[in-house]
Amino acid sequence: MKFKVGIVGVSGYGGGEALRLCAGHPSFEVTYVAGESSAGQKLIDRFPGIGALGGLTIQKWDAAALPELDVLFASLPTGESKEPLARVSAKTKIVDIGGDHRFVDGWTYGLADVWPEKIAAAMRVANPGCYSAATLAALAPLAAGKMIDPNSIIIDAKSGVSGAGRGGGGTFGFADVNEDVCAYGLLKHAQAPEMTKALSQIGAGQAALTFTPHLIPMTRGILATCYARGKATTADCLAAARKFYAGRPFVRVVDAPPHTKWATGSNLVFVSYAADPSREMIIALAAIDNLGKGAAAQAVQNANLMLGIEESTGLIGSPLWP
Amino acid sequence: MKFKVGIVGVSGYGGGEALRLCAGHPSFEVTYVAGESSAGQKLIDRFPGIGALGGLTIQKWDAAALPELDVLFASLPTGESKEPLARVSAKTKIVDIGGDHRFVDGWTYGLADVWPEKIAAAMRVANPGCYSAATLAALAPLAAGKMIDPNSIIIDAKSGVSGAGRGGGGTFGFADVNEDVCAYGLLKHAQAPEMTKALSQIGAGQAALTFTPHLIPMTRGILATCYARGKATTADCLAAARKFYAGRPFVRVVDAPPHTKWATGSNLVFVSYAADPSREMIIALAAIDNLGKGAAAQAVQNANLMLGIEESTGLIGSPLWP
Amino acid sequence: MKFKVGIVGVSGYGGGEALRLCAGHPSFEVTYVAGESSAGQKLIDRFPGIGALGGLTIQKWDAAALPELDVLFASLPTGESKEPLARVSAKTKIVDIGGDHRFVDGWTYGLADVWPEKIAAAMRVANPGCYSAATLAALAPLAAGKMIDPNSIIIDAKSGVSGAGRGGGGTFGFADVNEDVCAYGLLKHAQAPEMTKALSQIGAGQAALTFTPHLIPMTRGILATCYARGKATTADCLAAARKFYAGRPFVRVVDAPPHTKWATGSNLVFVSYAADPSREMIIALAAIDNLGKGAAAQAVQNANLMLGIEESTGLIGSPLWP
Amino acid sequence: MKFKVGIVGVSGYGGGEALRLCAGHPSFEVTYVAGESSAGQKLIDRFPGIGALGGLTIQKWDAAALPELDVLFASLPTGESKEPLARVSAKTKIVDIGGDHRFVDGWTYGLADVWPEKIAAAMRVANPGCYSAATLAALAPLAAGKMIDPNSIIIDAKSGVSGAGRGGGGTFGFADVNEDVCAYGLLKHAQAPEMTKALSQIGAGQAALTFTPHLIPMTRGILATCYARGKATTADCLAAARKFYAGRPFVRVVDAPPHTKWATGSNLVFVSYAADPSREMIIALAAIDNLGKGAAAQAVQNANLMLGIEESTGLIGSPLWP
Asked: What is the tally of helices (H) and strands (E) in chain B?
């Protein structure tokens, strides 16, 4: 018997990746998909390469009209999740891929590689933001080990354009984005407080951080380059990370700076470290697929945990290369 | 004394390239720029890298409120040129970069490398479409020399995305366009009749052709790969093209298949040929920058001709590489 | 019990994709991998995202030192397969992804969507070239139905750069390839005779064709735009293709021009048609992933057929989007 | 009368850009070009879009066989400049675009926007590295104004691939670089000491810094995102930069985060700032074309200064957009 799965926001990039993963998940049966602009279409009209699910009709999203589901993945624009998701049956587990429920009462923060037990016990999980997923993967072992000054953290992150969502409009047009890089949201990005709260919980102290996101000309991928003050050596950091993530299936601690391409299409996160104790400088790096570990694949991992099945079910495929 | 120049549609890709070229043109003084969405802004707010013209204010486009100009470049969306340009003073020369006046009475078709004398005598010039500019460059020598069966022509063209204009919306978003190629407008693209008419005039016969445009993941450039029936050898074709274009400053006849990157940012067009007489097959290739020879640079060449100055004035810069 | 699988040329793009697919194949156990430059490394050093197979050591390729295998995938440079593969045990099935055995005696041409029975009976299968895989998918129904003049065929194909293989060197460097398109191999590409032979067999007549490959700035994907003379309508062509491919799991006949992105990472091929009977012109289009249907995924489909298991085993994952 | 100019390393990316700029420079006459692999070719065989200089033959680089030149631009691989350039006539001014003479006795560091007078007096100028050019542009006003703790500086820079030079080989192949981002040279990049020395001189103190370069999938452009401790506000930083660069023609101080595309093909550098005094955090940003301000255009600016002509001669063209 398979779990009945629904996806709302299916025609966006995050929802589409959730669909891809759920369609190939051996314990999931996708029985409900919903969207806005695409409502009324068959899935195959939106996803010409989809397999057996192609005949499913995309529903107009209406939380009151949900069928019985074991788990619902929600990938809605910021600000559009709170009201409708509050009306979903308490018996349906929810993973909110969007940003409305992170560190909100009643919701568990879905940092699956760090807090699997908490997630396993939850009915409502708020998936981490894409930047947070990368950043926290790199910094969690250092924060947990009190190896860095929590007030010294700087995160310089580079993201592919799919993170901006599909309705991007002119600003994200190919001709403008190609052959360009820029920073945005300086000192005020919405994921900075999210990272701060998560790091404070992990490190049991009050973190403060500077976060600068950048848009680079690629479709998928986030690289987070993090800087913090600390006396540890490179070897100390690597050892701490290997211990912290021992047995966690999706975190790879590597000796050289990771490439985002290593993770394309997967739930993997690659972390690495370089330190200069003479300057008390630690560099922590993490590379992910922003739609994978940064969105839909982490969401599926969370759902697996919530449903009590092996957390890597449906997530073991190798990344696409090149 | 410099010619007074105006540009309408300045904030689009074609208009912006016209601005770049006119700003560096030694005989032009840009005194008027107009747009729609950008009206009221200073040029420097729209083009942060612009030089001395930065303080110019973008006007709300209004043909009735034009200052006195020697030449006006119009780069407006299809369907929006006819009515307003009809109201421009007869003393102002116009180059319409848009598609509304090609093969329309009272307008000269601005195929500058083929018909410089006609253009030099004109007050109203319709710039060729970007696909036509490439295609005609490759086929004109063969058509003029009756070397190909005018009913056998197939044009398979590959364009960068800037050709779709700036207001492209989601369809031309980076994440969708990157790592993708598709054909569009099969058997019904607007530039097919334009090419047909031009070829018929050049070849003094009735051409019929099949034209398939493709969108490829790059910003600038068009490569037209043309196929036609004919008995000529490769050497015949190259010789015919070299003779046809003798003394023309912007056409380069080359022995190997040309790259679009050879033309980036310039008014150049590279043409080449390969033929298999045993199958009566001739392949004609042309590579251009779609915003250069395919739009703004050809427009400046046309304006130079109309104003009676050396046609390469302001257009001699080398292409950008890489 | 799983089939024992080997891959030679594993560190190239084609071999790497074969590894990805075999690693996730439920009936395959990869027990042998070999390469040249990478020999001696662990798989995980070459493929940091690989899963359980990471500990496998890449062997120095030596046909004489092969372990017992049910099937061997060979992805070697042109000219380097014939001698070593001749020494492989007759009991080991071989799929040669490279170009040395296409239409060579003793080898079956692995056009899996057209000739599954022939392949199912073979011990030695030569995988089609990437361009041929796309072209033949589009043209096979028309050739089989005698709907096109076999002497009128023109194929204009656009390929991502991974088709050139990994050892590309400077010519395929990012800075040169990005923002560029060019044709190459005019009138003399190695896959033209291959397509000719296959089409002649399918159509039971003597085909002659013109093939022009192009390199475009993307990593994966081939779009073949094919032109031929014929009286059929668009509807006729679509109907013929739907009938020809009825029940074939990987061919999708679609009404609009297909995008290569629809196939990324999959074994799918999308074909479509547009015809103008008044000019007796038929356009046939096919979009594939050049490393999927164009190389490794088709190879796995061939292996499945040869091994007598369901041909779509291990190949049902949805394509990556965006 | 024009200055006689030579370029050695002309077939690389930096040398090629120097050629493009010198070819269009109204006071320069390029009379000598040299290379290694390209020696013996005509310029037009290497640069198909070049104009009047196309007939010039690329010489085998030999410092002993130089003609009389007013200025020589050298763009040679690291380690290959010192010996040959020492043999160039003392009467020939040299701008070394390569890395061998930065902060070497007898050579002036060519930070043209900061030290024009020193450069104007020099016969030997070492052009700044591409990363240094961006970084120093952003930090110089803050260092000069003692607005930042010189020991707290972190530079996170993102570069297009042309910075790696043309002989990149497989690592910089399109299929590997596209859809990827990575950091490299952690805590040990050659340009870190260069930046340190320059900043120490500007700020009259001992700077120490952390520098992390990244490779992103674009051809041209560098964005340097710099972090440092300081109490200044955003407005303080912008005001300091505007004062520091008053009258300097190529530095644009802007209010919003700059895009590298704003500078493509030009000598411009865009700098901006964002500060959070409550955390004593200052972010300084600079965007350049790595081959422009980061190499060849800055070299031409330096040559102009050395030759006593207006420093913007030949450098006033607008950037390419899009």
From this structure: 9, 14
User: Which CATH number does the domain housing residue D105 bear?
Assistant: 3.40.50.720
Compare CB distances from D180 to A184, A212, A260 and report the shortest one's residue.
Answer: A260
In chain D, what residues touch C217 (CB-CB under 8 Å)?
Answer: 174, 178
How many residue pairs from chains A and B have C-beta atoms closer than 8 A? Answer: 66
Across the interface, whether the CB atoms of A177 and B174 are under 8 A apart is answered: yes
**Domain-embedded: residue D316:** no
Shared domain for D96 and D186, answered yes or no, is no
Task: Tell me how many degrees the CA angle B12-B16-B22 measures, rounded to the nearest 5.
Answer: 150
Contacts of C237 in chain B (CB under 8 A): none
Chain C positions touching A220 (Cβ under 8 A) are 322
Chain A: which residues have CB within 8 Å of chain B? 13, 160-162, 166-170, 172-179, 217-219
Together in a domain, B269 and B298: no
CATH label of the domain that carries residue D196: 3.30.360.10
Q: How many domains does chain B fold into?
A: 2
Do C185 and C69 lie in a common domain? no
The CB density around residue A306, as the number of other CB atoms within 10 Å, is 24
Taking an 8 Å cut-off on Cβ atoms, the answer to whether D260 and A175 are in contact is: no
Percent of chain D, pLDDT > 90? 93
Q: Do A219 and B178 touch (CB under 8 A)?
A: yes
Contact call for residues A30 and A6 (beta carbons, < 8 A): yes
What is the tens place of the pLDDT at every residue in C199-213? 999 997 887 899 999
What's the mean per-residue pLDDT of chain C? 96
Please answer yes or no on whether C174 and D166 come within 8 Å at the CB atom. Answer: no
Sheet of strand C124-126: strand arrangement: C59-60, C28-35, C3-8, C71-74, C93-96, C124-126, C108-109
Per-residue pLDDT of chain A (322 residues; tens, 9 = 90+): 899 999 999 999 999 999 999 999 999 999 999 998 899 999 999 999 999 999 999 999 999 999 999 999 999 999 999 999 999 999 999 999 999 999 999 999 999 999 999 999 999 999 999 999 999 999 999 999 999 999 999 999 999 999 987 755 567 899 999 999 999 999 998 899 999 999 999 997 887 899 999 999 999 999 999 999 999 999 999 999 999 999 999 999 999 999 999 999 999 999 999 999 999 999 999 999 999 999 999 999 999 999 999 999 999 999 999 9
pLDDT tens, per residue, chain B with 322 residues: 899 999 999 999 999 999 999 999 999 999 999 998 899 999 999 999 999 999 999 999 999 999 999 999 999 999 999 999 999 999 999 999 999 999 999 999 999 999 999 999 999 999 999 999 999 999 999 999 999 999 999 999 999 999 987 755 567 899 999 999 999 999 999 899 999 999 999 997 887 899 999 999 999 999 999 999 999 999 999 999 999 999 999 999 999 999 999 999 999 999 999 999 999 999 999 999 999 999 999 999 999 999 999 999 999 999 999 9
Which residue matches tokens 């029936």?
Answer: B229
Helices (H), A30-112: 43-46, 82-86
In this structure, are D93 and D139 located in the same domain? no
C interface with D, Cβ–Cβ below 8 Å: 13, 160-162, 166-170, 172-179, 217-219
Cβ-nearest to D175 among C161, C176, C179: C161
Residues D107, D226, single domain; the answer is: no
Quick one: B199 and B262 in the same domain? yes
- The verdict on B115 and B135 lying in the same domain is no
Rounded CA-CA distance B223/B293 in Å is 12
A301 domain-assigned: yes
The angle formed by the CA atoms of residues B39, B42 and B47, to the nearest 5 degrees, is 100
- Count the helix, strand and coil residues of chain D and give each as a percent rounded to the nearest 5: 30, 25, 45
Identify the domain containing residue A84 by its residue range: 3-128+294-307
* Domain-embedded: residue C96: yes
**Given the DSSP bridges, would you call strands C124-126 and C209-215 parallel, antiparallel or unpaired?**
unpaired
Residue B186, domain member (yes or no)? yes
B152, amino acid identity: S
| A58/A162 same-domain check | no
Q: What is the pLDDT of residue B170?
A: 62
Q: Would you state the pLDDT for residue B1?
A: 86
- Residue C133 DSSP SS3: helix
